[in-house]
Design brief:
The protein has 382 residues and is of the alpha+beta class. It is 26% helix and 26% strand. The strands form 7 sheets. The protein has a 4-stranded mixed beta sheet. Strands 3-11-10 form a 3-stranded mixed beta sheet. A hairpin with a 2-residue loop joins strand 1 and strand 2. Helix 2 runs antiparallel to helix 3. It is elongated. The protein starts with 5 loop residues before the first helix and ends with a helix.
Length: 382
């Protein structure tokens, strides 16, 4: 039975470019992969044919030979792929094709390092910096300089890890791929190259400053913009301000985690602020005006209604915290705490006792409570 034309197998014209041939092969390999065609008994054979065609057409010399002599160019030991007793062998074997499809499907998920070699410089680590600020800073926002210990690119070797004018060389074990492949039955398993640890390059003469890492430890000063409205747990990302990558690899990011310190006067709940203000018994009973602080450093006068009890709240609109991304501003709530006087003089005690005798009808809540208590005890006796 005559073989199908390689161009027809891949579905491309004879004048197709290398890129068009590659795209056609990947499309055909995905379409015919046996794992996706369990109900098609011919899928594996068709998959191998597509792989064989691609192994020839992707190579410029083999393609030229095929264009001139057809399939005869690879018959009789002329160096091309061949069909052996154990299945399709040579450069176009099934495992190689499966690996290409695996790279195409999952290469981006596995770190984006797929394809034709080159350096596999490792990305630098992300860093975390915990920043503690005051509530006033969270209200107004601030510019702050922080010192971050990190790894920066080595200036002695320009980050490539090699001494002087020397350059890293392609790893002989993995040919610059950063990975080595091993056949395990039906599958080809990829592992990180043990010689270069996945970098794809080796250094014969390491830099004496960084010992070949391409980076050194150093403390950096960074100016950070803290926006108004941040609260504990807010995370700020500074792209590219983390650790430098190994041997010139991309830099990681810096994440700043905000912690807002407790305030001696104010308690925060989201965008609202609460302030507990003690007032005397006389002010609570008679009413009056008090002056309270606000988070912006200003002052506000608040009127206390007569007969106010502990826990009563009064709202000051738009005197709270600003929203993190602009827009509305929270409110401030004044909570009254009626204070019982201490360290009374004899005269003050006499006056309070006299006041208490005259106040039987001025304490409706306590009168109601003790009346309920008396009824309760009477019912228990009965």
């Amino acid at each position: 039975m005559s073989k199908q034309d390689y161009y027809e197998t891949l579905g491309v014209s004879k004048g197709a470019s290398a890129d068009e041939i590659k795209k056609a092969y990947r499309r055909k390999a995905k379409e015919l992969h046996p794992d996706r065609n369990s109900d098609n008994p011919n899928a594996e054979a068709q998959f191998k044919e597509a792989n064989e065609a691609y192994e020839v057409l992707k190579d410029a010399d083999k393609k030229a030979a095929y264009d001139r002599f057809g399939h005869a160019a690879f018959e009789g030991g002329m160096g091309g792929a061949r069909q052996g007793a154990g299945g399709f062998q040579g450069q176009g074997d099934f495992a190689s094709a499966f690996s290409d499809v695996f790279d195409d499907l999952f290469g981006d998920i596995m770190g984006g390092q797929r394809g034709g070699g080159g350096r596999r410089a490792a990305r630098g680590s992300d860093l975390r910096y915990n920043l503690r600020i005051t509530l006033e800073d969270a209200y107004s926002g601030l510019q702050k300089t922080i010192n971050v210990p990190t790894a920066v690119s080595c200036t002695a070797c320009n980050g490539n890890g090699a001494e002087g004018d020397s350059e890293p060389t392609t790893c002989p074990t993995c040919s610059g791929m950063g990975k080595v492949r091993a056949q395990q039955g039906f599958f080809t398993v990829e592992r990180t190259c043990p010689t270069c640890n996945g970098l794809g390059q080796t250094i014969k003469d390491p830099c004496r400053v960084c010992n070949g890492a391409g980076r050194v430890e150093k403390e950096r000063a960074l100016n950070v913009n803290i926006p108004a409205g941040v609260e504990t747990g807010t995370r700020i990302r500074l792209a590219g301000e983390g650790e430098a990558g190994v041997r010139g690899g991309p830099t990681g990011d810096l994440y700043i985690f905000i912690e807002v310190a407790d305030h001696p006067l104010f308690q925060r709940d989201a965008s609202n602020i609460y302030c507990r203000v003690p007032v005397s018994m006389a002010d609570a009973a008679l009413g009056g005006d008090i002056e309270v602080p606000t988070i912006d450093g200003g002052r506000s006068r608040v009127k206390i209604p007569s007969g106010s009890q502990s826990g009563r709240q009064m709202r000051l609109r738009n005197k709270g915290m600003p929203a993190l991304r602009g827009g509305s501003t929270g409110d401030m709530f004044i909570e009254l705490a009626v204070e019982t006087p201490v360290n009374l003089t004899s005269r003050q005690k006499e006056l309070l006792k006299e006041f208490d005798r005259l106040s039987e009808d001025n304490n409706p809540e306590s009168s109601s409570f003790f009346k309920s208590v008396k009824n309760f005890w009477d019912s228990m006796k009965g």
